[in-house]
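Notes from the 1:1 (GR / supervisor)

We went over the backlog. Supervisor wanted to see one worked example end to end before approving the batch request, so GR pasted a single chain during the call. The sequence is below; no edits were made to it. Supervisor asked that the structure be written out right there so they could see what the output format looks like.
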Amino acid sequence: MEKERQILIVLPHPDDEAFGMSGTIASYIEQGTPVTYACLTLGQMGRNLGNPPFATRESLPEIRKQELQNAMDAIGLTDLRMMGYRDKTLEFEDDHKLTQMVTNLIDELQPSLVISFYPGYSVHPDHEATARAVVRAVRKLPFESRPKLHCVAFAHETVEEIGEATIVYDVSNNWQQKLACLKAHASQTFELFQQLEEGQENNPDFFEYWKYERFWPYDWSNDKVK
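Structure output shown during the call:
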């Protein structure tokens, strides 16, 4: 894992960080790298209300806000920015304003690495809108001055169209932090957390997949974001 000066993570929902990058974040923090996480919404429209249900549609925003803070405590992240957008509306936000929000963060933090979703390969409309805004913001900088942009991708077409991930981290050393981060998002991740705990003990193949976190460097030579 290359040493970074400052990392900026831009994702739309609480728990987006937990699945594919919480172990990586914890590892960077342990190295002493400053990490800022800009979470655009509170996941107000999340489908799950816990199992058994412990949230209502009215209480879910505050519950997810606290879950997000608990998740950050689990991985040691102290610079959490809650950006105040509403869940499932990012695709309808003004493109310029969303891009400017990311630009402002980049100008403030001067990150050497930005992490978000890969546009076109992240399935959810909020993921896609966030990914496009991040690409636009980074693209405004001169090529030689741009931070690295590493992306998470999980659409079915990913490997066929952009290949296998070229950055793969084994987060075994931070596995307990990753599990704690997932567990913190209890309203949304109860089923997966249970599978991960069972997989660690009873299904080595399942555990083997989840202990790796995969990233794709953004391909500026094939930039299709408008």
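Supervisor's comment: The radius of gyration is 17 Å.
Batch request approved.
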